[in-house]
Amino acid sequence: MIQLKDVYKSFGSKKVLQGFTLDVREGETMVIIGYSGTGKSVAIKHIVRLLEPDAGEVWVDGQNVNTLSRAELSALRAKVGYVFQFAALFDSMSIGDNVAMGLRKQGQLSDSEIRQRVVESLRLVDLPDVESRFPAELSGGMRKRVGIARAIALRPKYILYDEPTTGLDPVTSAVIDGLMIRMRDQLGVTGVVITHDMRSAYAVGTRIAMLYDGTVRQVGSVDEIRHSHDAVVRQFIEGKATLDDDDAPLLSAGR
Ligand SMILES: Nc1ncnc2c1ncn2[C@@H]1O[C@H](COP(=O)(O)OP(=O)(O)OP(=O)(O)O)[C@@H](O)[C@H]1O
Ligand SMILES: [Mg+2]
Fold first, then answer.
1. Can you tell me which atom of ligand 1 is nearest the CA of 12?
2. Which ligand lies nearest to the CA atom of residue 40 in the structure?
3. For the CA of 43, the nearest ligand
4. What is the reported pLDDT for 64?
5. pLDDT for 119-136, tens place per residue?
6. Atom 9, ligand 1: which residue's CA is nearest?
7. Atom 27, ligand 1: which residue's CA is nearest?
């Protein structure tokens, strides 16, 4: 179980998280939605201590993440896969080496075991023959899938996906959604998915949380969010632009 408890985080004078609380239960996929720049990536970086809270606590499987020793932190990062928002592959390394990287760092498997794990992981994301190719030779969607393969190669208990479908066409997005569902249902992976894409949120989510103004505005099942009566949540999920009075003259001037 992952728990963020009343987390506060600012950068200089910019307040990002202001009492962010969220539980992620075993086996579920928690989707985090919210406007760009509201702190979704910042929130999940706390789970693997890429960021530390100014106040509040982060717990994973009963351990307070911010009091872990270096060795305990490595163990934590081995069980929490992280699929970065921008695939973050190393351009000078082959796809196979990119996927193998975390396993080599762990130093627990032999070379042949690593190779086997790499092949298996790429097959799981439907990219069987790309091991010897380089990131620049792949499409954006393929690179995103390599990012997922790299995370699952470690056989993590948890996977954090930061906008896995953003910028992809609907068909490729659906493939990635299917993959995240398979991770949960076949491998029992507990997931956290950040997305702006409501179609994807409804497809993969067990529950959905909306981040707004530094806190969780609402968290609930897919149906509860879909039928939310909260005006802020409704506006986001319906994708309507706000037209305040300042915008009105601009619009009429354009006609
Ligand atoms: N390391 C950092 N140093 C300073 N400011 C940061 C840092 N990381 C994030 N921020 C700021 O925190 C705010 C939240 O950023 P974050 O990346 O979490 O947004 P987001 O909700 O993930 O947005 P998007 O949907 O565009 O990815 C932004 O204003 C961003 O500029
Ligand atoms: Mg982000």
1. 4
2. 1
3. 1
4. 97
5. 999 998 888 889 999 999
6. 42
7. 36
Q: Give Cα separations from 26 to 2, 31, 105, 224 (angstroms).
A: 8, 14, 27, 20
Say which CATH topology domain 2-87+157-254 has: Rossmann fold (3.40.50)
Could you give the angle at which helices 140-152 and 111-124 cross, rounded to 10 degrees? 130
For residue 15, what is the DSSP state? E
SS3 229: coil
Token pair belonging to 121: 């992981």
**Cα 45 to middle of ligand 1, angstroms:** 11
Q: For position 7, what pLDDT does the model report? A: 98
Q: In angstroms, how far is the first alpha carbon of the chain from the final one?
A: 54
Q: Which DSSP helix (H) or strand (E) runs through 252?
A: helix 248-254
Residues 35-71: b if buried by 16+ CB within 10 A, e if exposed: eeebbbbbbbbbbbbebebeebebbbeeeebeebeee
DSSP characters over 85-119: SS----TTS-HHHHHHHHHHHHT-S-HHHHHHHHH
Break the chain into its structural domains and give their ranges.
Answer: 2-87+157-254
Neighbours of ion ligand 2 (CB under 5 A): 41
Q: Cα of 85 to ligand 2 centre, how many Å?
A: 6
- Residue owning the nearest CA to atom 1 of ligand 1: 11
Ligand closest to Cα of 211 equals 1
- Report the predicted TM-score, pTM, of the whole model to 2 decimal places: 0.89
Distance separating alpha carbons of residues 74 and 68, to the nearest angstrom: 9
Closest atom of ligand 1 to 196 CA is 25
